[in-house]
Design a protein that fits this description.
Blueprint (H helix, E strand, L loop, with lengths): L1 E7 L6 H13 L5 E6 L2 E2 L8 H9 L6 E3 L9 E2 L1 H8 L6 E7 L12 H7 L1 E5 L13 E3 L11 H9 L10 H10 L4
Enzyme class: transferase
Pfam family, one: CTP_transf_like
Pathway: Cofactor biosynthesis; NAD(+) biosynthesis; deamido-NAD(+) from nicotinate D-ribonucleotide: step 1/1
Length: about 190
């Protein structure tokens, strides 16, 4: 099976995480599933919601082909992509691809063991609004097709919640209800 991994903080998971996953399956030939893989903690940016809250919210994005993987969150330590990928590639039954947005490409050299990482797994780069793709590192491939682009981000959603502004349409209704019920991001 060919599995694309969309990793990150998912703080909170939003509609664009879903549409990124969907577009990967629609535009990258042979992708069978997309796994949403939340970090326990992130090496570069703080995370507000607990791993358990983010995992609960990610369940609402699951479909038959979009699935949640807790391989990183279950480690209860800072998530380094290279460690996760080393674990994944031991699985000879599946072939894995790592999904990144075009906003991440310029900072890839900051990732732990980034040169080793680019030899271990192919990267699929999904274009993001305001982040044109000018050049790609070795083993990075631009996702081509009639793609929708967005600037929706978890940061934007957290800021809107904090300011008491609506987030309807930016997250699934179940995620919005969960955020309200747990009083997250206030």
């Amino acid at each position: 099976m060919n599995i694309a991994i969309l990793g990150g903080r998912f703080d909170p998971p939003h509609i664009w995480h879903f549409w990124t996953s969907q577009q990967i399956m629609e535009n990258v030939r042979g992708i069978d599933q997309v796994w949403l893989l939340p970090d326990y903690t992130n090496a570069f940016k703080p995370i507000v919601a607990s791993p358990s809250d983010r995992i609960e919210m990610l369940h609402f994005l699951e479909t038959g082909r979009i699935r949640l993987s807790t391989i990183a969150a279950s480690k209860e330590t800072t998530t380094y992509t290279v460690s996760v990928v080393q674990e994944l590639v031991r699985d000879n039954q599946n072939r894995y691809f790592w999904v990144v947005g075009s906003d991440v490409v310029s900072e890839f050299s900051r990732w732990r063991d980034y040169q080793k990482l680019s030899r271990l797994i192919q990267f699929l780069v999904i274009p993001r609004k305001d982040y044109p793709i000018k050049g790609l590192p070795s083993n990075f491939h631009k996702v081509e097709g009639n793609l929708m682009m967005s600037n929706v981000s978890s940061t934007l959603i957290r800021e809107r919640v904090k300011r008491g502004l609506p987030i309807t349409g930016l997250v699934f209704p179940e995620v919005e209800a969960y955020i309200k019920s747990k009083n997250l991001y206030r």
